[in-house]
C-alpha cells in the first residue's frame, strides 16, 4: 500500500481476485489484506498472476492560481508465489496546467508551490531582465500547457509475514522502487530513483476490517533541488456489503518533499464488485484537504486474474 497518487488507482485495489479464485465463500473473509489500499484477502500460498488497469482523473489548484488536471492510465502486472508478491506498473500520464506540479511516479503529484512562470523543471528561470533572449521578459502567468507521455515504472515486492508466522491478523512488509522513465523536462517525473519501505496491518472483525499502512520514502534528488525524505500513512476501514460487494473509506497523509511545497491530506471512498472469480471492478472518489492533494479525483479499475 505504498503511497500512491493520493490513495487511489493502482494502489487502491490489489488482489481480491486472487482470493475469490481459490478460497471458498465460507472462509474467504478470514484472511484480509490491505496490500495496495483497498483491503482485500491475503493471497493463498499458490501461484497467480493479476492484471489491473483503469483510468484516473484528478483536478486541483495545488496552491496555484489555475487548476492542474491530470489523466493517469496504469497497467499493473502482479505475480504471487507462496508468501511473496512481485508487481510491475507502467503508466501513461497527461498533465494540463500552469506548471510547477510534477508527476510523482505513482499516479500522484509533487507540487512545488510555483507555476510555469517561475520554474523550468525544478530549476528557476533567470536572466538579465532585458528581454533579449536571456530571460526575465515576463512570461504569461495565465498560460496553461499540456504535457503527456510514459510515467515512471514502479517495482514492488511484498512478503506476507502473517502467513509465514501464522498470525491472527494481516501483516505484510514491502518495498517499492521507482524507476525514472518519465520525462522530467515535461514535468511528468523528477528524473530520479525513489525507494520506499512500508508495513501493512489489517484485522478482520466480521464484516468490518480496519487497516493501516506505515511507510517511509527516500526521495531521489534532481540536480537543482534537495527533496526531503518523507513519512506517509494510510488508514481506513473496509465493509463487506455482501460476498461480492465491498465498500470502504481511506484517509491518506504524506509529508511535503520541499519546505515551500505542501503535504498530502485526502480521503477516498470506494466500491469494489467481484463480478466473478477472475474479474472485479472498482470505482472510487477522492476529496483533498490540502494544497498537496487534488480538489477532486475519481477513477475506475478493472482487475483480471490469470
Compact overview of the structure:
The protein has helices at residues 16-20, 161-165; strands spanning 32-33, 40-41, 47-60, 68-81, 84-97, 101-103, 109-111, 145-150, 153-160, 170-179, 194-202, 208-218, 230-240, 245-254, 264-276, 279-288, 296-305. By secondary structure, the protein is mainly beta. The chain has a single domain (9-305), classed as Porin.
Which properties best describe this structure?
306 residues; 12-stranded antiparallel β-barrel; mainly beta; 2 helices; Porin; globular
Describe the structure.
There is one protein chain. The chain is mostly beta strands and 306 residues long. It has a single domain, classed as Porin (Beta Barrel). 3% of the residues lie in helices and 49% in strands. It is built from two helices and 17 strands. The chain has a twelve-stranded antiparallel beta barrel with strand order 3-4-5-9-10-11-12-13-14-15-16-17. Strand 16 and strand 17 form a beta hairpin. The longest helix is centred in the N-terminal third of the chain and has 5 residues. The two termini are 22 Å apart.
Helix and strand content put the structural class at mainly beta
> Between the first and last Cα atoms, what is the distance in angstroms?
22 Å
- Give a quick account of the main beta sheet: strands, pairing sense, barrel closure: 12 strands, antiparallel, barrel
Which homologous superfamily in CATH is the superfamily? monomeric porin ompg
**Biggest sheet, spatial arrangement of strands:** 3-4-5-9-10-11-12-13-14-15-16-17
Amino acid at each position: 500500500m505504498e503511497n500512491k497518487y493520493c490513495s487511489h488507482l493502482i494502489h487502491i485495489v490489489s488482489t481480491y481476485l486472487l482470493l475469490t479464485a481459490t478460497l471458498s465463500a465460507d472462509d474467504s473473509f478470514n484472511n484480509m489484506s490491505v496490500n495496495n489500499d483497498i483491503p482485500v484477502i491475503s493471497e493463498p500460498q499458490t501461484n497467480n498472476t493479476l492484471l489491473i488497469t483503469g483510468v484516473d482523473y484528478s483536478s486541483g489548484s495545488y496552491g496555484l492560481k489555475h487548476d492542474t488536471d491530470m489523466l493517469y492510465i496504469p497497467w499493473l502486472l502482479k505475480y504471487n508465489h507462496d508468501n511473496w508478491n512481485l508487481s510491475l506498473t507502467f503508466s501513461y500520464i497527461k498533465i494540463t496546467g500552469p506548471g510547477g506540479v510534477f508527476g510523482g511516479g505513482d499516479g500522484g503529484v509533487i507540487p512545488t508551490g510555483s507555476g510555469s512562470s517561475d520554474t523550468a523543471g525544478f530549476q528557476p528561470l533567470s536572466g538579465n531582465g532585458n528581454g533579449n533572449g536571456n530571460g526575465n521578459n515576463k512570461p504569461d502567468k495565465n498560460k496553461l500547457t499540456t504535457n503527456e507521455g510514459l510515467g515512471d515504472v514502479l517495482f514492488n515486492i511484498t512478503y506476507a509475514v502473517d502467513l509465514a508466522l501464522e498470525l491472527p491478523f494481516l501483516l505484510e512488509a514491502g518495498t517499492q522502487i521507482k524507476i525514472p522513465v518519465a520525462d522530467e523536462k515535461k514535468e511528468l517525473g523528477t528524473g530520479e530513483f525513489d525507494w520506499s519501505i512500508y508495513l501493512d496491518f489489517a484485522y478482520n472483525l466480521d464484516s468490518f476490517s480496519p487497516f493501516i499502512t506505515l511507510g517511509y520514502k527516500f526521495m531521489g534528488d534532481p540536480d537543482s533541488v534537495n527533496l526531503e525524505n518523507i513519512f506517509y500513512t494510510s488508514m481506513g476501514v473496509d465493509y463487506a456489503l455482501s460476498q461480492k460487494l465491498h465498500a470502504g473509506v481511506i484517509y491518506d497523509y504524506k509529508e511535503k518533499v520541499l519546505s515551500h511545497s505542501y503535504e498530502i491530506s485526502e480521503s477516498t471512498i470506494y466500491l469494489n464488485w467481484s463480478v466473478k472469480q477472475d474479474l472485479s471492478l472498482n470505482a472510487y472518489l477522492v476529496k483533498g484537504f490540502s494544497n498537496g492533494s487534488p480538489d477532486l479525483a475519481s477513477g475506475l479499475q478493472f482487475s483480471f486474474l490469470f
